[in-house]
Amino acid sequence: MVDTSSFGWEGHVAPTPLDEYSKRYADFFEMRREDGILELRLHTDGGPYVHNWAAHNAWNRVWQDVGNDPENHVLIITGTGDTWFRGDPRQTWPKPLVEETPDYIFQQTIDAWKLIENFVNNIDVPTIAAVNGPGIHTEFALMCDVTLAAEDADFMDPHFMVGTAPGDGLALALQHLMGTKRAAYAIYGGAGIPARKALEYGLVSDVLTREELVPKAWQLARDIMKRPRFARWSTHNILNRPWRKLVTEDFGFHFSQQSLATVASKALIPVPELVADARERKVW
After folding, report:
1. What is the pTM of this model?
2. What's the pLDDT at 242?
3. Which of 137, 185, 208, 249 is deepest in the core (most CB within 10 A)?
4. What is the pLDDT of residues 21-74, one digit of tens each?
């Protein structure tokens, strides 16, 4: 913990320490910090992350606690096992969102909104994602300064495929990184983007074996730590600037369109067979 007593700041309110917030989010992230490098590993019961709304609710707050902790100098985000994300959409959405209460709809909206805003705006240190396998909800991995991918990682935006509009931030990332035409083709077709193709398109920084993936992220993080703190902070600000502009200018529009489509359609996953291919590829 930074000793602020020498600053002469009487009444200073200290940020939440790692040993406290790591316990608060323990059901969703395994955290470890070494020499200022914090690794957040998504998990469910110690295994691959299985999507649930409790985790979705926690994500926007964990970004705030991580960003507010001055002991965090570099952030690594990765997953557990051989997939980034798992979850049966029929279990995630047992009924159309329009059938939920207004407070439920509002909270899910705020969670999805702040998930992106807080990740982009509240974390002021270099960020590295190590995408350890196939799975959706890769928007915050793609918005990291550096995105490393395992050889079998598979990137896709499933929203149109399951009957709504692609507005949670992933389409925003795809459009920015690989261009409007490629993004439209992938979104309309519900097509996966394999890791090597993702590298060709500029979605990721490098593709490695799963065994090499996290060690490479840590090696890069340690190299980053060799530079002065102000250099690290300023460089992240420069590299993160396009995302902050996109989120400020376009994310609200994207997300409002998804919200409208999801509620007004009064259905989700109208044809369950549409997700069969994604399930076979372990993307969902």
Report:
1. 0.92
2. 97
3. 137
4. 999 999 999 999 999 999 999 999 999 999 988 999 999 999 999 999 999 999
Q: What is the mean pLDDT of the chain?
A: 90
Determine the Cα–Cα distance for residues 87 and 27; give it in Å rounded to an integer: 16
139 labelled catalytic: yes
Name the residue among 235, 213, 284 with its Cα closest to residue 39: 213
Contacts of 166 (CB under 8 A, 6+ apart): 157, 159, 160, 187, 254, 258
DSSP three-state, residue 135:
coil
CA atoms within 13 A on the CB side of 60: 16
Q: Average pLDDT for residues 105-123, to the nearest whole number?
A: 93
Sheet of 37-42: strands edge to edge? 29-34, 37-42, 74-78, 127-131, 146-150, 206-208
Q: Are strands 37-42 and 29-34 parallel, antiparallel or unpaired?
A: antiparallel
Within 8 A by CB and 6+ apart from 156, the residues are: 136, 186, 190, 191, 192, 193, 278, 283
> Per the residue annotation, which of 99, 100, 139, 273 is the catalytic one?
139
pLDDT at 206 over 90: yes
Q: How far apart are CA 158 and CA 167, in angstroms?
A: 11
